[in-house]
Records
---
Amino acid sequence: MSSPSPDRPALPLVLDEPRGRRKPPPHLADLTAEERADRLTELGLPAYRARQLSTHYFARLVDDPAEMTDLPAAQRAELVEALLPSLMTPLRTLEADRGTTRKTLWRLFDGALVESVLMRYPDRVTMCVSSQAGCGMACPFCATGQGGLQRNMSTAEIVEQVVAGARSLARDEVPGGPGRVSNVVFMGMGEPLANYKAVIGAVRRLTDPAPDGLGMSARGVTVSTVGLVPRIRQLAGEGIPVTLALSLHAPDDELRNELVPINTRFSVAETVEAAWDYARTTKRRVSIEYAMMRGINDQAWRADLLGDVLNGYGDWGWVHVNLIPLNPTPGSKWTASDPADEREFVRRLEAKGIPTTVRDTRGREIDGACGQLAATEG
């Protein structure tokens, strides 16, 4: 196992909760079942009401207190305020793919803007959620990264994006009939592992059995990262078999230093080794995310190098590559690769035995790249 060089600084404190900002009000999704009961007790309210409130939120997907008829009318407002405060307000919802792709812009309690996307496929429904308002990773081709970090989101703010999508499906607001969210990907605004505590809390709420949580399978949850090596190793020890998606974007340090600035702190070799260790520990295949940029990282020789880098670990199919046709931001020099170059990239990787897919490009007409909608609104 390699370790950072002695002159390399530790993970910067800026990746933790930004200071000096108000926190959102406490919500039952921030708390375990026991903590919810304790909070009600502290407020002089019956502890057993916490389970009723959790059932309304996670199992019945209710957001109107008037429908919570098992709560006493005299206490209902106080109970709802204690554990179900309003966290975010939808500002705009844009639709594509005949209404089966829905992107929502949310205003948080302090005015920060974030986005989530619901994507319905014939066999599944995937929610793409944000974990931070903005992002501090400064990747130059990313709309969110160029806006900088405003603040971390709370566990409940993250979970609320999924619950809102679940409500839309349950109420038959998405073409295809009533349904449920089967997959959640932490690939919206922000670097999830830079907001580690809240993201792990959200993963636990998503996977806790109802009514303590949404009761999803951990295998349906994907957490992405640009490569915060200490946090990848921490995630491997959580005992939650989520899929890890590593946003690599380049197989060599020279280019990745430019495309993913955190690479100057954790090299390609260190980052890929941490991903391999994650796969070995969890027995979950890692996804390598690779945004294809014309003339930047889509050369055939880089496909060969990427294959060699990934083949340096294990032989049990621990990894697959997910190529992402770049959704360029307005005025950006970064553009999508030529389809012929994309096909050759796939061919080269598959020739080296690396399973490779090209991501379905949904939502281009609704500012599909994370951060685009918030940037235009802000």
Note: The longest strand covers residues 88-96.
---
Amino acid sequence: MTSEGTKLDGLKWLVVVAIVAAGVVGNSVFAGESLLYRVLALLALALVAGFVAFQTAKGRAFFQLFKEAKNEIRKVVWPTRQETLQTTAIVVVAVLIVGLLLWGLDTLLGWIVSGAIG
């Protein structure tokens, strides 16, 4: 990366901020227009802002990170339906047991405190 590219990156981010600000202001100025037109205009501005942002060093790094994350997700071994149901059942049973234990402890302590207070 050259220092000139870094200098231009600041200008590009300024353009991105200006485009986003134009979208926000334009959406409120044209509040009387059809929602469809405003949404389409905002989508167009978002695409332009995204294109400009991806031309920066941080934008390219983000895109690279996104591609690598997508590749890592493909490597994940997802559980089968049966494994998911069994794990869910274990969690539900554990939560019920802990809930009953806490309820019993709360009831016992409440009984002791009410007996001590009178």
Note: Residues 81-117 form the longest helix (37 residues).
---
Amino acid sequence: MYERIRSLREIKNMTQVQIAVLLNCSQRIYSNYERGEVDIPTEILSKLADLHQTSTDYILNRTDRKEPYPPSKKDRI
């Protein structure tokens, strides 16, 4: 999982500082996420998936399908 969030960040050509600002956390905390030194809270995981337009399952290595899931019916209303 940790390699994926680094790879996704690098694909967007963003720094850890830029991602940390968007996640409202420090660069040090974000760096800890990328190195796997701390678990990523669910709220941050969801924000990362939205930011990178992918699914949490992709970030968690549960799938290799990078595309996000389609919105649920309740989200379409």
Note: The chain has a mean pLDDT of 91.
---
Amino acid sequence: MRTRFRPDRQLTARMVLTVFLLGLVYVAFVAVLVALLKSWVAIVVIAGGLLAVQYFCSDRIALAAMRARVVDPQQEPRLHGIVDRLCAAADMPKPRVAVADTDLPNAFATGRNTERAVVCVTTGIMRRLDTDELEGVLAHELSHIAHRDVAVMTIASFLGVVAGMVTRFMFYSQMFGGRRRGADQTYLLVVLVMLVSAVVYTLSFLLIRALSRYRELAADRAGATLTGRPSALASALTKVTGEMARIPTRDLRTAQAFNAFFFTPAVGARPSLSTLLSTHPSLQQRLDRLAEISTELGEAAPSA
């Protein structure tokens, strides 16, 4: 899709590299399964089916999980006005616009292509941000759609799904009668497959998290460049992160599964683990990058 969002060759290269590395790991993983098991095809077919459902129905699944509804311009004129202006500036098709009725201040974009794309904001973030700040957030989310990284992240997650399923399958098969047939050799086989699956899951998890962090920085840059106001996006980041601390922990943990797609994570990793395990860069890193973009654009640097 051609848009006025600046092509991000570094993001494209990282997405290609991540998928390539995951593909290598996946080939090695299947080779091990072929050598050790006879039922690996069923596992891959099941996981492939789950991936197909996730890929083709991701927009409906996400909206249903967040209890969001698609709204028209009469229902949300301010929101549609911002999206209309941004899509015109970016020369991209307008996605569907949805609102989730929750106090959690956040936003996300989903959909496998521009025809199925949807950008969703919560009532909590609309209430807390002014128009310029909300425009910065929506420009960030629209860049995810323009760069097709939602689809890439869905495909990249396939290997982790397969590895996780294999681990559970072998664990339960061992618990419910796997050892009765036999043999210490069978038990050793089960343990070996579980170890291989765990290693594969860990590698895919770390690769996907690294890509997720970079794609957020890329979306910050693309969104700030499109609006020409990095300070507004920085202000939105600071405000949303601060307001998140006031949300009950129980509500945050309910939304934690959406962290990889949210504008800011509902529940972040502990500082000692954030580098490897977080879906997003730290707030300070994002603000520092936006300050650099402000300097490039000649705008006053955003304050933290």
Note: Residues 184-227 form the longest helix (44 residues).
